[in-house]
Amino acid sequence: MITVENLTKAYRGRSGTTVALDGVSLQVPAGTVCGVVGESGAGKSTLARCIALLEQPDSGGILVDGTDLVTLRGSALRAARRQIGVVPQNDSLLRQRTAAGNIALPLEAAGAPVEARRKRVVELLDLVGLADKAGNYPDQLSGGQRQRVAIARALAANPSVLLADEPTSALDPDTTASVLTVLDRARAELGVTVLVVTHDMGVVRRICDDVAVLDRGQVVEHGKVLDLVTQAGSRTSGALLPGVEDIVRAGDTDARFDRVADVVLVGFAAVGALLPEAASRFEVDLNLLGGGMTRLADTPVARFRVALTGANADSAFDWIAERGAVVRRRPTVLAGGAAA
Length: 340
Ligand SMILES: Nc1ncnc2c1ncn2[C@@H]1O[C@H](COP(=O)(O)OP(=O)(O)OP(=O)(O)O)[C@@H](O)[C@H]1O
Fold this sequence. Notes:
- One of its GO terms (biological process) is amino acid transport.
- Pfam families: ABC_tran (PF00005), NIL (PF09383).
- Residues 2-241 form the ABC transporter domain.
- This protein has 340 residues and is an alpha/beta fold.
- The chain has 2 domains: 2-238, P-loop containing nucleotide triphosphate hydrolases (Rossmann fold, 3-Layer(aba) Sandwich); 242-330, ACT domain (Alpha-Beta Plaits, 2-Layer Sandwich), CATH 3.30.70.260.
- The chain has helices at 44-51, 74-82, 99-109, 114-127, 143-155, 173-190, 201-207, 225-228, 235-240, 250-254, 268-281, 313-322; strands at 2-13, 16-28, 33-38, 59-64, 67-68, 84-87, 161-165, 193-197, 210-215, 218-224, 259-266, 285-296, 299-309, 326-330.
- β9 and β10 form a beta hairpin.
- The longest helix has 18 residues, at 173-190.
């Protein structure tokens, strides 16, 4: 578990002071993947550097498994650093070392015996899908493969936390997918807690359990992705759910139906069956006016603008809501123009 408590950090320069982190608090449960997102300049990299102990915050705490890292010095600080594997923003492999040689670096620094090193490097190459590239030098690897070697190197000393700063920013979509798969495997197979700094909500969509949205040094949204997408007006729902607004000229079209609502459905059962079942159970005509389906990690999620016609339209929406869907009714415009 990583707990960031009220972290502040300002940069002081000749042209004045820039507040990069302004009381940031967040919790990342053990064994989850958390995305830190936000516009350029929001403070994401500063937060990552503070958590990686590469930068000293002005105030606040960073607790990893209960230990406040900010207060540590000397050998305790060095030991704490080993608990945090860092995948740097830029290509950071040593050019004169092979993939295996790069991955072995932290193990050499920790004084691990040769045989243990060799075994661990083989395991890690396998984890990142590069078992056949052990002897390749960085220049003989693609950008995505180099990034996977950097992840393997960050995992070499068995850290409890893996911190990746924009791990996919320079990669094409296919390569991005392979890097994200590796981060997901690190969590699933090694139980590592993963913090991914990214400006790309696609990363959140694919692998994050949790997300923290930073804006001008503050956390403006934080929680489970699947909870945040059900909250009306959340930035996460806006960025990750299919849009319903632009499909129809709402006022005109809504008027043709008895009841209209925006419905968010989460999970296989809800997405697959809830709406047709409601239609047949309550004998209402069901029309989808907008929206669509998507997938958040392994979970199917849908947002539809649903129109119902029939005497039981209200009861049908109540029933859908009782089964866990989020139903936001829209004011129904009657054919004559007055709101119902
Ligand atoms: N070393 C520094 N010296 C002075 N100001 C800095 C320094 N590093 C960052 N800043 C400023 O702090 C603020 C937060 O920067 P930071 O790099 O943490 O944001 P970010 O969200 O990671 O942005 P990006 O997505 O562009 O990398 C910005 O206003 C930035 O200009």
